[in-house]
Write a structure and sequence with these properties.
- The chain has helices spanning 2-9, 30-41, 95-104; strands spanning 16-27, 51-57, 60-73, 86-93, 108-109, 114-116, 119-125, 131-137.
- The protein is of the alpha+beta class and 138 residues long.
- Strands 1, 2, 3, 4, 5, 6, 7 and 8 form an eight-stranded mixed β-sheet that branches.
- The longest helix has 12 residues, at 30-41.
- The mean pLDDT is 91.
């Protein structure tokens, strides 16, 4: 029983980014872009129009992480209010505590945390005007 307690005590719950969860960018023609990447680089998209790259967590080998890749039609408002041509999704741990920390630091929070079957999300703006998506997987 003591070993289980020690393992629990060693779990890092620091509110922070733990990896990149997605790379999203504008394209003049997302369908042609997806076709080019499939033909030339072997990146196949799924029914949601994105590609999923899976990897293992080195500290928890049974845990599978996923990075999403997706081109969006130039001008799509998903990146708003950012005027940039890309958005990065960061995978995080302890998102509730991270939101509190971000608010304390004066970071612009764009929406409320949303919860889905595959995790919790919130959007923020960085100091350079980049919209950032934060995602804590289930």
């Amino acid at each position: 029983m003591e070993d289980a307690k020690n393992q629990t005590d060693n779990i890092d719950t620091t509110p922070k980014v733990t990896g990149v969860g997605g790379i999203f960018f504008y394209s003049d023609n997302p369908e042609e872009t997806k076709e080019w990447y499939a033909k030339n680089l072997g990146i196949e998209t799924n029914e949601w129009g994105s590609a999923s790259f899976e990897s293992r967590n080195l500290n928890k080998p049974d845990e599978v992480n996923s990075l999403q890749w997706k081109p969006f039609k130039k001008g799509d408002d998903y990146f708003s209010p950012s005027k940039k041509d890309f958005m990065i999704n960061y995978q995080v741990q302890n998102i509730e505590a991270l939101i509190i920390k971000l608010k304390e630091n004066g970071v612009t929070i764009l929406d409320s945390m949303a919860t889905y079957d595959f995790g919790k999300f919130i959007h923020i703006m960085d100091a350079e005007g980049n919209k950032i998506e934060l995602w804590e997987p289930n």
